[in-house]
Amino acid sequence: MAETTSAVRFEHHGDPDVLKVQDVELAPPAEGELQIKHEAIGVNYIDIYHRKGVYAPPLPLPAGLGMEGVGVVRAVGAGVDGFAVGDRVAYVGGPPDAYSQARNLPAARALKVPSDMTPELTAALIFKGLTVEYLIHRCRAISSGDTVLWHAAAGGVGTIACQWMSAKGGMVIGTASSAEKLEVAKANGCTHPVNYRQTDFEARVKELTGGAGVDVVYDSVGADTFEKSLNCLRPRGTMVSFGEASGPVDPVAISTLGAKGSLYLTRPSIAHYTAQRSEYEAAAENLFQAIREGVVRAPEITTYALGDAARAHTDMEARRTTGSVILIP
Ligand code: NDP
């Protein structure tokens, strides 16, 4: 009889209650795959886009969910080198199926977890930390003296970004939606926290930069902030639009970038910055080293049981979470 495992599945796009934990069949790992028993699973905003069906192209239904996990290898498929039963591995990407007790994963996405990292900390950091790694080193490299506007500065990615950018000497203006979240951003190295529910962030950025504007904006909020974010840039500044927590960004006319000051605009994805194995491994090593050196500290971690994935989504969408959210299978 085929083995089964518990996994989250959804048959329709929609609200968190579409997520159901089911017993699903788990075949032995195919060629090039590892079978992993999860110890901790990262929850990321992309999971919410997948669940809602707003991320193009939408996942074919019924679908699994989750792009980040940590666990122990329990079987190795044919043709896989470099991994053995018992290894602790973490991953970003692969088919969305991290919300499960066990799964098969392309070995090309697996990274060995250093012995000084716990499964919980790794699940809290690997997707979000690798996102920050590429955004501030390889997408638009931050150097000492750069001025940066970072939205959702107290969230999972934002918490790590504030720490890492401030260690690199960036002057970070960070937005968040409550006084408590501003405190979190500040504690993580954000130089100027701004409550964008109460304060016009564009006016505040102009004030803080003496009218000049910032060198770079990292905008993951999307619809609600994109246009004003462009107005926050200095001439020849860079707009990194990397998410849409408030909804998709309207199309932008190329002439707008000229009119607003010869701006650069990029819409990056972690998938393209970790697709090559050598870049993926080097980025992970960069992140683990930043943790060892204390440049990036353990974030606040909120833990839910795998069966409470819907509640984790509800809290994240309601903007109740700060730091990282993980599921324990
Ligand atoms: P967060 O923990 O940052 O949660 C999202 C945050 O967005 C909320 O806490 C909230 O902060 C803010 N927000 C603003 N408007 C809304 C809204 N209308 N509804 C909900 N939240 C809103 O999530 P993650 O750390 O997982 O991800 C952060 C962003 O980074 C996401 O947009 C995600 O898609 C993006 N991302 C992109 C990647 C890429 O490679 N392109 C890779 C990884 C993440 P507040 O209450 O302070 O406003």
Automatic annotation (TrEMBL):
Q: Where is the Enoyl reductase (ER) domain?
A: 14-327
EC number(s) on record?
1.6.5.5
Can you name a GO cellular component term?
cytosol
The portions of this protein that span the membrane are: none
- Its domain of life reads Bacteria
Asked if the keyword NADP belongs to this entry, the reply reads yes
> Which PROSITE patterns does this one have?
QOR_ZETA_CRYSTAL
A Pfam short name:
ADH_zinc_N
Q: What's a Gene Ontology MF term here?
A: NADPH binding
Q: What is this protein called?
A: NADPH:quinone reductase
Native organism: Maritimibacter harenae
Identify the taxonomic lineage of the organism of origin. Answer: Bacteria, Pseudomonadati, Pseudomonadota, Alphaproteobacteria, Rhodobacterales
